[in-house]
Amino acid sequence: MVANPMAGSKPVLLSIVELGGYPDFSTLYRGSGYEVIATDSVRKAVKLIRKHRPAVIVAEFNFQSDFRDRTSSLETVFSSLQGVAEASVIVFYEKEYAHQYQRLKNQFSVFESMEFPVDEIRLQKALQAAHPGDG
User: Fold this and answer.
1) What is the pLDDT along the chain (135 residues), one digit of tens a residue?
2) Strands 88-93, 35-39: parallel, antiparallel or unpaired by DSSP?
3) What residues make up the domain containing 100?
4) What distance in Å separates the CA atoms of residue 57 and residue 103, rounded to the nearest whole number?
5) pTM listed for this prediction
6) CA 119 to each of CA 23, 107, 124: distance values in angstroms, whole numbers, following the listed order
7) Is 4 part of a structural domain of the chain?
């Protein structure tokens, strides 16, 4: 067994904010007992997943109609988790893209889905449920 250099510390939450336009929830994440690592690209997120093995990932669903075989770059995030980390994924999405988002949910296990505008109390409850016993 490989020793985890983060052993004994807080669980890691990886925040992926590609487009933003909503409040920075970093304070809420920290207040819920997580060490927060943030990135603005999926490419960087894949490297961070391998390095930190997050307990929770919070990301946006950004529908990309120019992709032929997928709906968004979030699929890359889910694929990179396989065999690496057992993260609970919380996804923020726009109501107008709910149909496309459902296609992603049919393929991957999403811990919690939250439509914009994100309800902070609901987010906090989801964060606590994602990693119980540390709060």
Assistant:
1) 334 444 458 999 999 999 999 999 999 999 999 999 999 999 999 999 999 999 999 999 987 655 555 557 888 899 899 888 899 999 999 999 999 899 999 999 999 999 999 999 999 999 999 987 644
2) unpaired
3) 12-130
4) 19
5) 0.88
6) 11, 25, 9
7) no
DSSP letters of the chain? -PPPTTTTSPPEEEEE-SS--S---HHHHHHTT-EEEEES-HHHHHHHHHHH--SEEEEE----TT-SS-S-THHHHHHHHTTT---EEEEEE-GGGHHHHHHHHHHS--SEEEESSP-HHHHHHHHHHHSTT--
What is the count of structural domains for the chain?
Answer: 1
Q: Which residues contact 110 (CB under 8 A, 6 or more apart)?
A: 89, 90, 91, 104
